[in-house]
Write a structure and sequence with these properties.
It is an enzyme of class 3 (hydrolase). Its EC number is 3.2.1.22. It catalyses: Hydrolysis of terminal, non-reducing alpha-D-galactose residues in alpha-D-galactosides, including galactose oligosaccharides, galactomannans and galactolipids. This is Alpha-galactosidase. The chain has 15 helices and 31 strands. It is α+β, with helices and mostly antiparallel strands and 631 residues long. It folds into three domains: 2-30 and 516-630, NPCBM/NEW2 domain (Jelly Rolls, Sandwich); 46-363, Aldolase class I (TIM Barrel, Alpha-Beta Barrel); 372-457, Immunoglobulin-like, CATH 2.60.40.1180. It has an eight-stranded parallel beta sheet with strand order 9-8-7-6-5-2-1-10. A six-stranded antiparallel beta sheet has the order 11-12-13-18-15-16, covered by helices on one side. Strands 19, 21, 24, 26, 29 and 31 form a six-stranded antiparallel beta sheet that branches. Strand 7 (248-252), helix 11 (259-266) and strand 8 (269-271) form a beta-alpha-beta unit. Helix 8 (169-179) runs parallel beside helix 10. The longest helix has 18 residues, at 224-241. Bound molecules: alpha-D-galactopyranose. Alpha-D-galactopyranose binds at residues 51, 86-87, 142-143, 188, 252, 254, 275.
């Protein structure tokens, strides 16, 4: 039976080298990196945005004063360059389709018959900064649909108040990028979510209905392909109208429409959750939507757990432990570092948080690896991040309001436990070293972050889980997106404790993970556990960037979290579109098989796991155990 399957798979592989068939087969290797690299986000974007500081109550004075504060405080020279105008800038869409700025709030825009942001972006550029603008993928904006007491709402007739991109993509994007010279755009998604025919705003005649494409409560109802197509169209328009100038395209879909799977292919950063609030529990919610998604981020496209709320509420300067935790976690996880605080009021203590150059350096590390969740519990989490210079960063995070004992462990760092590990505490500057394990106490809500160097367990190579920024789950095998049930459910300020409470709503459950099997299970094949590797579902294809490595090795098999009697899975290693190695079909319970391939000179290595029964709603979890590239 096995031999037969193998032969059949071999035959189908031969057929699949025909281009037409290849196009139809999502597992057919392409020899290229398919995640987005257009635009200008080789590192997570850094800057400031108006929303968390001012909501829509914005004006030119606030924007320019914030920009000046970035420069005067030295934060701009640390990398905080984007100054992003969020909701609240637009007055109306004129009959000829042109968007009109609120010149009462932005007086420099009043230059004749066609108000323009060009004077403002020129000022920001002259200050050495970059400028960001905000729009919506639908006809109407978030503020119009969801915020009744919003200042600066668009005015006029129903048509004049349709300020979103829907039906105006080319014209608006040309205006923002070619005419107004913006460098960044955030495209929100409320207009394709909140205006069904029976919405009160539609029935009252305020806005036109737009059949929702996004339903936060139901992925089954959400039209993922249509949502993706709209965002893709905007991406293409930006490419055209930026005319070779660098830009950043920020997708704001709050983890809906399965965007955690495809945002990386379309934008430069993509929101994974609903809005952050200045509350500890809500920060945890947003954090949880990115922690297991290291493989879905990398140079060019980053996971965005939302803007920083350092400086406000639970993260103000009377709560510096919490402020440092929020900042440390965002830095480790390669979140865009977008300050959401009124910088005109910045205290030295808050300046010291935003301005911790060693933390910023972790976020801006050239290797672009989002930290991997190395230890997980509801109380303490440990994150490890491989840096470009071969050293590591490790963060231990206390989620709770009580002190807790924790350990820095050489094993979790994939450093040898029998050799010295040197640590530098990035908040205190203290140096120390240990062997094996270092016990430490975490204060309530504290995060300790260290730079660590020791003797690598794999001296001549990198485990794939150490280079998540260079691994792209082009097909992650998830047959139908599911909401992630492990994300912290917090009390939202907009609901309080009304209704039935929070529930799983952010898609991303069951995707590819570093050092874990899908659904947060252990990597284990026929009883043999692996503390490193990539876990993914069958019917998947991973793209791996190879920068000068000679060999690929892994121990492969169906993960023990699968099911008895499931269909066998064949593992293939490809290099630049050429098949280099293939396993026998492997069933549930079969011991791991070693797969090795010579990848010298191959730029893109692809790892395909194909189940014999083809597309299925219940693909087996599979393990690329010890997966590594070797020099
Ligand atoms: C949505 C976004 C926020 C902000 C507001 C503006 O809620 O998620 O980040 O842009 O809209 O109205």
């Amino acid at each position: 039976m096995r031999a037969l399957l193998h032969a059949l798979l071999g035959a189908s592989l031969a057929v699949m080298s025909v281009p037409a068939a290849a196009a139809a087969d999502p597992l057919a290797p392409t020899g290229r990196w398919s995640a987005n690299t257009a635009g200008q986000a080789p590192l997570p974007p850094m800057g400031w945005a108006s929303w968390n500081a001012f909501n829509s109550d914005i004006d030119e004075e606030k924007i320019l004063a914030s920009a000046q504060a970035l420069v005067d405080s030295g934060l701009a020279s640390l990398g905080y360059r984007y100054v992003n105008i969020d909701d609240g800038w637009w007055l109306r869409r004129r009959a000829d389709g042109r968007l009109i700025i609120r010149t009462d709030r932005f007086p420099s825009a009043a230059i004749g018959a066609d108000p323009s942001f060009r004077p403002l972006t020129d000022r920001l550029h002259a200050m050495g900064l970059k400028a960001g603008i905000y729009s919506d993928i639908g006809r109407n904006s978030c503020g119009q649909i969801y915020t009744p007491d919003f200042s600066n709402q668009p005015e006029g007739t129903v048509a004049e108040r349709e300020v979103g991109l829907y039906g105006h993509v080319d014209r608006d994007i040309r205006l923002f990028f070619a005419d107004w010279n913006f460098d960044f755009i955030k495209v929100d998604g409320c207009g394709i979510r909140g205006l069904p025919a029976d919405a009160p705003h539609v029935r009252s005649g305020m806005y036109r209905a737009l059949t929702p494409l996004v339903d936060m409560q139901s992925l089954g109802v959400t039209d993922v392909a249509a949502v993706r197509a709209l965002y893709q169209e905007v991406g293409e328009a930006i490419r055209t109208h930026s005319r070779g100038r660098p830009y950043v395209y920020s997708i704001c879909l709050w983890g809906a429409a399965d965007v955690r799977q495809w945002g990386k292919d379309v934008g430069n950063m993509s929101r994974t959750s609903d809005d952050i609030q200045p509350s500890w529990a809500r920060m945890l919610t947003n954090l949880d939507t990115v922690v297991t998604r290291a493989l879905y981020a990398g140079p060019g496209a980053w996971n965005d757990p939302d803007m920083l709320f350092v400086g406000t509420g639970d993260f103000d300067d009377r709560h510096l432990t919490q402020a440092r935790s929020h900042f440390s976690l965002w830095a480790m996880l390669n979140a865009p570092l977008i300050i959401g605080y009124d910088l005109r009021r910045m205290t030295p203590a808050l300046r010291a948080v935003f301005g911790n150059a060693e933390l910023v350096a972790l976020n801006q590390d050239a290797a672009g690896n989002q930290a991997v969740l190395a230890y997980d519990s509801d109380q303490v989490q440990g994150f490890v991040k491989m840096l470009a210079d071969g050293s590591k960063a490790v963060a231990l995070f206390n989620r709770t309001a009580s002190p807790v004992q924790a350990l820095v462990s050489a094993d979790q760092l994939k450093l040898r436990p029998d050799a010295d590990v040197a640590l530098r505490d990035l908040w205190s500057g203290r140096q120390q070293s240990f062997r094996g394990e270092l016990p430490l106490e975490l204060a309530p809500h504290e995060t300790r972050v260290f730079r660590a160097s020791g003797t690598r367990r794999l001296p001549g190579g990198l485990y794939l889980s150490e280079m998540p920024g260079s691994v792209n789950p082009a097909e992650d095998g998830v047959p139908q997106p599911e909401a992630d049930p492990t994300i912290e459910r917090s009390i939202t300020p907009w609901m309080g404790t009304r209704g039935s409470g929070e529930h799983a709503q952010y898609a991303g459950w069951g995707g590819a993970d570093a050092d874990r099997a899908p659904y947060r299970k252990l990597l284990r094949i026929a009883g043999r556990a692996f503390d490193t590797g990539i876990g993914i579902l069958a019917n998947s294809r991973l793209e791996v960037r190879n920068s000068g490595f000679r060999a690929f090795e892994a121990d492969v098999g169906v993960n023990d979290s699968g099911r008895q009697g499931s269909s066998p899975v064949t593992f293939e290693v490809w290099g630049d579109g050429v098949l280099l190695a293939r396993s026998e079909p492997m069933g549930f319970g079969d011991p791991a098989a070693r797969l090795a391939a010579d990848v010298a000179g191959r730029r893109i290595v692809e790892l395909v796991a194909r189940s014999a029964d083809g597309a299925t709603l219940a693909p087996s979890p599979v393990t690329w155990g010890n997966a590594a590239l070797l020099r």
